Amino acid sequence: MPNTATLATLSDSDRMSDPNWWRQAAVYQIYPRSFSDSNGDGIGDIKGITARVPYLKELGIDAVWLSPFYPSALADGGYDVDDYRDVDPKLGTLADFDEMAGALHQAGIKLIADIVPNHSSNRHEWFTEALASPKGSAARDRYIFRDGKGPNGEFPPSDWDSVFGGPAWERITEPDGTPGQWYMHIFAKEQPDLNWSNREVRDDFLRTLRFWSDRGVDGFRVDVAHALTKDLTEPLLSKLELSAANTGVDGFDDGTHPFWDRDEVHEIYTEWREVFNEYNPPRTAVAEAWVHATRRARYASPEGLGQAFNFDLLQADFDAEEFHEIITRNLAEAAATGASSTWVFSNHDVVRHATRYGLPQFSKDKTRAHAKGQDGKDWLLAGGPQEELDVELGERRARAASLLMLALPGSAYLYQGEELGLQEVADIPDAERQDPTYFRNKGVEVGRDGCRVPLPWNVEGTSFGFGDGGAHLPQPDWFAKYAVEAEDGTEGSTLELYRKALKLRRELQAGEELTWIPTANSKVLHFSRPGGWQSVTNFGDLAVELPAGTVLVSSAPLEDGKLAANSTAWLR
For a pLDDT cut of 90, what percent of the chain falls above it? Predict the structure, then answer.
């Protein structure tokens, strides 16, 4: 990023050609099936996104991250991919994709595609071929097949559990009709894991990266980036043995787990980086890697993917001390590795932060499980009782947290609807749920459908303007309050707060430094950025004095010139 220019002084074309655009980008995640429906079938689509490009431009984002749009049976919300180089017919065509990419680029907005390399779907042509081929065939070697245990192979190769519940192995029927081998699936059984020791698998993904890069994709979000390589040397460790060997603070921290965060995975990303660097500007990537903090930097190295998500703020309490520690640590990591930090509070997998922050929080000397950012699950399991949710407090804290995040150096990742202050939809009828985590873990998980309900664009209509028909997940009546139409131009609305903050971010963001300014109040975080602008966040319950300066934007109205409780202000 140029040292003498802010993002606002660059033209759209200059920003589009800047090789460092991603370092401080505001990235907006779109879950395509729930964003905008152009043909009234109840499912969001590519043309729907294209029609909303003016909205995205006015919002002021730098890039769109598109969750999977590939052909899929939706066993896991599109993360079960049938064909990596096509568009799901329910969402559109490749021509529609090209039109969307062109419209985004014309608006000065980059395009990041979600790529899912750990597993395909069980409908992928490779897996179909594997099922029709004999044991030991080249077709089966693209996946992870093993003989079962027991006299007749009737038991799985190990007792490992999948992330979505149940065993991590599924037995197949051989072409001759007899019970056969087992294949590995870390996630749903419809998502067989690929064998990344196979050169054909590696080469095919290089072709996929070039396919989308040639169509104008500027970067990739890499799903489950830490799981591709595996060591399945016999004998396979049991769950008990894995647990006994798991001595790291946040899990294995030495690269020895059989399938999580192995060192060899970085050989793959070195090859990917060579492909990215074939383009001008180079294609970017960000890893979804749930790994020990000490191992995150390898995914974010310039020789690898370049960036890695950190979910530390997402998992934190709304607490000044915890925020300070997380921000300081992650900025130090970024400085040491040459990467840039990533910040996020909501996405397609977690309870929306406007809702999380309105739930009762547990004190730090009690279990932390329910206070963590990915939680709110017990509340959902209870049916989302409104008496336990302080909507006003949640919205106020969410606005404060988001404004603080947008002031930080590094990339800010926003999830569709958070710019409206949208709440989690808790009371979806069981018969209308779609998430496999609900069906595989009934009584333990409600699933992620509540953050994936289609967006409200208008205050009225069968789907609040999402489309001319209904919506594939039910929208509650209270969505009208959060509709774009209701917030557009409304002073004090969350949408207008985001628009103003994102505009200011471009004008003021220069350099990647942050200086903490000591405060007498432990509930207040205060830091400055280059150019003389400052961010002040009051995590407490009482209004506090603001330092001298002109207030540029505040997440809540000032109280007699003081910063209100649970709010953030930028000043200069």
Answer: 77
- Which candidate in 161, 254, 267, 278 is catalytic? 278
pLDDT at position 248 over 50: no
Provide the CA 569 distance to its chain's centre, in angstroms: 26
CA 328, CA 515: separation in Å to the nearest integer?
A: 10
Residue type, 505: R
The answer to whether the CB of 211 falls within 8 A of the CB of 94 is no
- Give the helix ranges, DSSP H, for 152-260: 199-214, 239-245
Cα torsion at 158, 160, 162, 165 (round to 10°)? 110
Taking CA atoms, 223 is separated from 112, 289, 402, in Å, by 12, 8, 24
513 given a catalytic annotation? no
Structure tokens at 227: 């799981």
In angstroms, the CA 58 to CA 56 distance is 5
**For residue 71, cis peptide bond before it (omega within 30 degrees of 0):** no
pLDDT band at 138, cuts 50/70/90?
very high
Residue among 223, 288, 312, 333 flagged as catalytic: 223
Closest to 310 measured CA to CA, from 35, 325, 321: 325
* Whether the bond into 235 is cis, omega within 30 of 0: yes
Nearest of 293, 405, 294, 275 to residue 285 by alpha carbon: 275
The string of pLDDT tens digits covering residues 500-545 is 999 999 988 767 889 999 999 999 999 999 888 999 999 999 999 9
Give the integer Cα–Cα distance in Å for 464 and 456: 5
CA distance 252 to 292: 7
pLDDT band of 8, cuts 50, 70, 90: low
CA end-to-end span of the chain, whole Å?
A: 22
Q: Contact, 24 vs 7, CB < 8 A? A: yes
Residues 6 or more apart in contact with residue 465 via CB below 8 angstroms: 456, 457, 458, 483, 484, 485
- Round to whole Å and give the CA distance between 398 and 395: 5
CB 330 within 8 A of CB 336: no
Cα atoms in the 13 Å half-sphere on the side-chain side of 494: 24
Packing angle between helix 391-407 and helix 494-508, nearest 10 degrees?
A: 10
**Mean pLDDT for the chain overall:** 91
Active site residue 76: no
Mind spelling out the 3-state secondary structure of 489-530?
A: CCCCCHHHHHHHHHHHHHHHCCCCCCEECCCCCCCEEEEEEC
Contact 190, 76 (CB under 8 A): yes
